[in-house]
Each structure stands twice: as structure tokens, then as C-alpha cells.
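Backbones bend. We report:
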Amino acid sequence: MKTAMVGVVAAGVFLVGAGTSMAGAWHELPRMKPTGAQFDQGQYRFNAAAQNHGAFEWAGQLKDALPDDNNNVYMQVRVEGHDWVRYNGKQRQTVFLHHSNWDGAQQYTDDADLRACRDRGSLRPDNCSPTRHFRP
């Protein structure tokens, strides 16, 4: 009976370890293309608890798709139901963005939203791609 219990515990530890190592794998992000902005070649991953704060990590190319409209572009990220965090691009350019977002009160992040937007100034509302929701 003692040998059977050790086998079960060892199998459980192995399965947990396998899940944690898979959590850090990079995944492709779908293209996001609201009017005036474009986010391409995107990737994301959910880091394990002991790696990079257990953050939702993402990267990609943010492009001002309408360079003559004098509007800026930006990405927004939200993790664990907190407020949106904004990362600005540059007018008339394509920039590479690579960021990590996490909730300091948790060991790891398992809930994230991401969208690309065009800043249309203070008189008109910004336009954003549909919000993409991610879970490990």
C-alpha cells in the first residue's frame, strides 16, 4: 500500500510540472486591424508563477496604417479584470512592442484581454479592434 501511494504522488508531481512548462510556450496572436491601426506578427504566453512574475507576456508590430490622418495608435492590455493599460505606438511608423502585464497580488496571470486602437483625439471616440480574450 505504501508503494502505491508514492507512485500516485510521483505521477501527480510529474503532471503538474508538465503543465507549468507548457504554460510558458509562445502562441500566435491573430492580426488586429481596426481602421487606422494594425497589429501583426504578434505572439503571447502565460509565464509560470516563478518566471517573469507569472505575467501575460506579449509582443508584435504595431503600425500606423493611415499615416496621413495625424492620429496615433496604441495597444491596450487588461489582466485579471484590472483597468486597461495603454502602450503607445508612433505616428507614421511601425514599432515593435514587447511587454509583460501581471497582477502583483497573484502568483501567476491566467486571464488577459488585448486590443489595438487608433487615438482620434479628444473630440472623436477612439476606434479599437474587437477585444481578444486569452486564457492559458
The helical segments are 2-23. Residues 1-21 have pLDDT under 50 and may be disordered. The chain is about 15% helix and 40% strand. Residues 62 and 85 are 16 Å apart (CA to CA).
